[in-house]
From TrEMBL:
Keywords: Membrane, Transmembrane, Transmembrane helix. The lineage of its organism: Eukaryota, Viridiplantae, Streptophyta, Embryophyta, Tracheophyta. The chain crosses the membrane at residues 15-36, 48-72, 92-114, 126-144, 156-176, 196-213, 225-245. It comes from Saponaria officinalis (Common soapwort). This is RGS domain-containing protein. Residues 294-412 form the RGS domain. SUPFAM superfamilies: Regulator of G-protein signaling, RGS. Signal peptide: none annotated. InterPro entries: RGS, RGS_sf, RGS_subdomain_2.
Amino acid sequence: MGECSLNGGCPSDYVAIFVSALSLFLLIARSAFPFLIYKLSIPKGSAFWIPAIQIVASFNLLASTVMSVNMIKFEKRYWWQSCYLWAVWAEGPFGFGLLLSCRIVQVYHLYFVFVKKRLPQIRSRFFLPLILLPWVAAAARIQIKKPLNDRCQLTILWTIPVTFLHTLYVVILVGFTRSIRHVDFRFRELKDLWRGVLVSSISVGFWVAAYILNEIHDDVKWLQVASRFLLALMTSVFVLAFFSLSSSQPLLSQISLRTRDRPEFETMGQALGIFDKGIVSKREQPLSEHCNEPLDKLLLCKRFRQSFMAFAESCWAGESVHFYDEVQELGNLPAEDSVRRIYMARHIIQNYIVPGAPMEVNISHRCREQILNTLDLAHPDLFKTALIELLHLMKTNLVRDYWSSTFYMKYREASDMERNDHDLELVTTLNVAPRLSYVQASDDPFHQDHLLKEHDILPS
């Protein structure tokens, strides 16, 4: 143990490396599982690149722990083995600092959306580098001054400001999280944020304690080995417990690695408890099959909307009908239920409104900007103008072709069959013959014996 306590390569070091690799594998598997198994579409924008950046930051943090505390026995001959690359840059700006910065960006977004009820004024792709600047400045300062020793450790004068920087970002995360603690989130956003605060606080404490033990008691060999192992183990636990998709992808948070069943809810409307997608019940007549009926009236019929949606998708223009469908779901929510309305409105904006969205609808630039710059995401008329524009577009491009399509023919046949079944049931109900019971004696509920007595007194 005497040689490996200083140069690395102890059995416990390789166990720690295995645990770190395993945690990284589980992290990647957890993030890729919904897309590989269920073939879900990869989200665009911050919903994708913020979780992706957190995976990269987790790898940097784990690799920096392995490379900077002499777990692997090798001679440092090349630039990529430098202490400043791993202990300063990989651990600081592109490791722990990047993880905390991503979580601060997420809570900043939640604060604006659910407290201010508007989209953030600074886009995430600009806000994240801004939050990360102090880490880059601190790493550049250390790189210039070169205070690290041959064991990749700082002196006490440098440890205090570095520890303060780690603690400062945890405090910032706590402050933002406290500002949204009164919001009744429908998913696990607040729980995940507090979990990130707790895990990061404990990890910083363990890292500082491990550093102090290594610095003060460097002559105790078993303590050097034990502190390295504990440091790597806590880093692995940190990245697994800290990382979460739910803050940016609520529906994906329901999917578990332990089951291959599909998630309970496949749409945001279902996840929010909005299950009624049409005003017409199963037994009611369709609104109309006539071509001269207004489209906005026909779309209120659930069966017609499904038929028209299938036709629009066959023409590669289904996003307009899907948008109408989800706006109708939003309209089913009460005006006072601002949290669920904001969830649904944000979902619609991310999928249909923002430039480059997966199902971006064809609306005017002015209408798009009005929605993106709204001061109230829960406003009942938020998508009214966009809906009017899209209805006009559907009337111009889709409706005329729909009436001559096989989709309309199938819809008409289904409507006729339902009408015939309904009429038959109505006739059967109105023409009910007197019912005679076959129950005998005193148990006869229809008093059949009374009918027999009347028959006896009739003349033969």
